[in-house]
Amino acid sequence: MNIEKLQHILSDQPAYRLKQAKKAIFIDLIEDWDEATVFPKDLREKLNKECPLDINATLTISKDANTKKILIKLDDNNEIETVLMKNRDRNTVCVSTQVGCALKCAFCATGKMGLTRDLKASEIVAQVLLISRHLKKKKEHVTNVVFMGMGEPLLNYDATLDAVRILNDKDGLHIGARKISISTSGIIPGIKKLANEDIQVNLAISLHAPNDRLRQELMPIARKYSLEELFQTIDEYIKKTNRKVMFEYVLIREVNDLPIQAKKLAKLMRKPLYMVNLIPYNETDMFEPSSQAAITRFKNFLLREGIEVTERKRFGRDISAACGQLSTKK
Ligand code: SAH
Ligand code: SF4
Description:
The protein is of the alpha/beta class. The chain folds into two domains: 1-54, DNA polymerase, domain 1, CATH 1.10.150; 55-319, TIM Barrel, CATH 3.20.20.70. It is built from eleven helices and twelve strands. It has helices at 3-9, 16-27, 41-50, 109-113, 121-136, 157-168, 188-195, 212-218, 227-241, 259-269, 292-304, and strands at residues 57-61, 67-73, 79-87, 90-94, 98-100, 115-118, 144-147, 180-184, 202-206, 245-251, 274-280, 309-311. The strands form two sheets. The protein has a ten-stranded mixed β-sheet with strand order 1-2-3-4-7-8-9-10-11-12, with helices on one face. Strand 8 (180-184), helix 7 (188-195) and strand 9 form a beta-alpha-beta unit. The chain is globular, with a radius of gyration of 21 Å. The structure holds S-adenosyl-L-homocysteine (SAH) and iron/sulfur cluster. Residues 107-108, 148, 152, 183-185, 206, 248, 250, 279, 281-282, 284, 323-324 line the site of S-adenosyl-L-homocysteine.
């Protein structure tokens, strides 16, 4: 499924055909063009041949029933993972933007794979579409999309933004920009570009350390972009967009969860529209997660300092579908 190809195939048709096609794909969630009965038969056949709607995927369902991990096989046989998280009335899809990731953060399973290739916009959108089809059977729908699966979205900038636009399209899934979040390890040129887009999604920054030395140890990309430069870019982003920025901080036992680090972090975060999201470390093979006592201590310290803090719920650990556990290398 590829919107550009679809546009091309329909280019000799009246304009309303594209609108009908989008409705069929994203609202009626058809899986075969034969279901699009508003189209003449020969057009349906052509579309089935040139723009097929099937997505090849395997579902792994977590024991807690709130997380589903979906393995998708791409046309070139590469595999990516998508996660569906249910939380009360929310259905959040966590999408991948690359096959693997080049950035090799020490705590992340995807980083261990290295980068195979970027995903196309259609491959990013297909992940959401697949979950939408799955949810339709239960009369539910996708409410939120987070770009927090495999890969660094801002190193696949154009496809990521194209995907955002398709997800946001009012003739399609119509997911509000405020329901879409992009998480980045701090790619400065990408953040600058994002600040100037006409569509404003939520921005999350993977911080994970309150100083350059530790951050560089955990995240090699921090050697390229210093914290000083990063905060300067984020402040410009906030000035332009007037939007909140979420700083993600994965708590790793005795690595970044000490009181002195909480103090340092509080100092950095004491700015309007900054907020912290504490993430329990999901075990890969490198480190150990912080104890619940250390997490609470860290959180309470930030709260006492007047910082806005949220704690991320754990999802899908039993099926390795949690943050940083996505890897299709066996
Ligand atoms: N590449 C982007 C987006 C994908 S990673 C980024 O790094 O922001 C999504 C989030 O999962 C990031 O905040 C990342 O730091 C976090 N993460 C990675 N490994 C993790 C682990 N083992 N436990 C918990 N969170 C992890
Ligand atoms: Fe890549 Fe994000 Fe994993 Fe780092 S945390 S290796 S940037 S996917």
